[in-house]
Fold this sequence. Notes:
The complex is a heterodimer.
Chain A lengths: L1 H28 L5 H6 L5 H11 L5 H14 L11 H36 L4 H15 L2 H15 L15 H35 L2 H8 L4 H32 L1 H6 L5 H10 L3 H29 L7
Helix pairs in contact in A: 1-13, 5-6, 5-8, 5-10, 6-8, 7-8, 8-10, 9-10, 10-13, 12-13
Chain B lengths: L7 E12 L2 E13 L4 E5 L6 H8 L8 E9 L2 E2 L5 H7 L4 E4 L13 H13 L3 H14 L5 H4 L9 H13 L5 E5 L7 H18 L2 E6 L2 H7 L2 E6 L2 E7 H6 L4 H8 L11 E2 L36 E2 L8 E2 L5 H10 L12 E2 L2 H5 L5
Parallel strand pairs in B: 3-8, 3-9, 6-7, 7-8
Antiparallel strand pairs in B: 1-2, 1-4, 4-5, 9-10, 10-13, 11-14, 12-13
Helix pairs in contact in B: 3-4, 4-6, 6-7
Amino acid sequence: MARFIVRRLLSMLVVLFLISILTFLIFNVIPGGDPAIRMAGRQPDPGQLERIREEWGFNEPVYVQYLKTMGQVFSGDLVSYSTQQNVIDEIGRRLGRTFALAIGAAVMWMVFATALGLFTAIRAGRVSDRLLTVLALVGVSMPVFWVGALMNYYLGFKAGIFPNGGYVPITDDPVDWFYHLIMPWTALSLLFIGVYSRILRSNVLDTMHEDYVRTARAKGLSERRVLIKHVLRNSLIPIITLWGLDFGAVLGGGAILTETVFDLQGVGQYAAESVDQLDVPPVLAVTLFAAFFIVLLNTAVDIIYAVLDPRIRLT
Amino acid sequence: MSVVEPLLSVRDLEVSFRTEEGVVPAVDGVSFDLAEGEILAVVGESGSGKSVTAMTLMGLTREPNARFGGTAHYKGVELIAASDDELRRVRGAEIAMIFQDPMTSLNPVHRIGDQIIEQIQEHEGLPDQQARERVVELLERVGLPRPAERVDNYPFEFSGGMRQRVMIALALSCNPSVLIADEPTTALDVTIQAQILGRIRALRDEIGAAVILVTHDLGVVADIADRILVMYSGRIVEQGTLDEIFYDPQHPYTWGLLGSITRVDRPRLRRLPAIAGLPPSLAHRPEGCHFRPRCPHEFDKCPEVPPLESRLEGRPHHRDRCWLSPEQKRQLREVSAGQIGLDPKAGVEANERRSGAGRRA
């Protein structure tokens, strides 16, 4: 176990290193990627450009620029090219919002998907199953920005049931915090609920035909116990992997559309705005931040996986 | 074999499944009694309805597409019409089952001890420590080495034979009166097979449980059964004691089954004898005797269903479903010296594995 974790941490460093190089290079080769031109404003004179390049080190070789930037990432001195604000501070300011969105939504979609998947599997082939299957497909097919916009318009703007976007810190007012997050959570969860419940449904149906489930019934266990202890536990194992990856991505700012539609000012939205400005430092930092969470959650999932299924050995 | 008060009494059991091909009758009027402490073998090939019969007694065939008829009385409970809750109290506690494939019959993600404790606690509500002690004791009784350590192992840490022992321990954990073993040795190799059968018989002797042994292998039956039911295409075609079936079989299908056993006390045949043809599709069975299309002795009476009845003087419990007279049967059987009903063209190439798996006669 300890060896497994050490190895995973080492491989995490390699992954982060490669991602940082890739991100940095991409922004150096795309057209219009020269930050000096944008920083100089409209119709700059060449001397101004030269001064900016000199000042920010844009005239140095790429690898020197990379090393410098990475040094700033670790020292916390990374500064945005377009706003000149400290990137690490900016991310820190938005972290709570992204975490609130990610954790709440991950719990929500897992709970609802489990309930829905189990229910449709038990009712497989009946009207309720077919109806919910169609609903799940609708959920999968609806893009977040569209659902979010509809919710904002109808539930927020027209009906006034929920606040029309925005965020209130939990420390200020927990109830208002929750109230503000209900729509973002729901919008983000819909797609995942659709996908997860479909996968779980087919897993449960497969598992119900396993010999060991017949054994469980032959023991005289109640149907509820058979379902929860013998069917659900085995059916959830593949879902957990998926959940870890998706949760990691959302934690790392992957819910860009949701954050933007509901104006949550989270890390994802920050990344989107920075990409818009071709602002390398924040994009680099957010990418590393996201990759860190994905790799971390992936490792956590592998450990959970081994706990759930004793046949899996961590090496 | 005088049956005073049968432990389990099955009458006119019918099971059919609704499928895309229409309603398929899997069990078609099966009746039998099981006496206390008796080992009853149910023999037949795939699709004969033997496993469905066994599983239906446990209610394990209950599903939306299944239809049931007939009765099965066990100690005042009628199992076929019983509610799920009534049946749950019988399952595992009164009637326990051992399944065919020990590799897949245990839940891979739970410790074997926990899987047995679960059953004990469901029926008897013992505290954890006591239940665990009983499990260790059970594992020892079924011949699992170092039971106190292995109780915390997972199924994947065991071999097939060991897992089947665990299954037996599970089945015995609540001292059931009836043990149903559905092809308990089919998935195991021959040496393990003998050990498992020996274990089942020893347990019958120790705790006095009656055993229903479902198998396609008459070799298995010869070792331990008291009485045999031969099933074909959903019906019992012959029933009698072990000796009656082995030494005076009445139904041509039984002759075929007996003929397909490799005997080490007879000259080795180049081809292993087999019964010609295939069992009928359950959805399209012939009128009358179901064995008719494969039977070399078919005559004009066969399109009528032969009743299961005693056709021999002084042997009321030896019954069969064949219109031939006992004299005809004796003649036909003797003419071809145990090879009646065999078609050499349809024979299966005898190979080392099969002949090795034959009956130790």
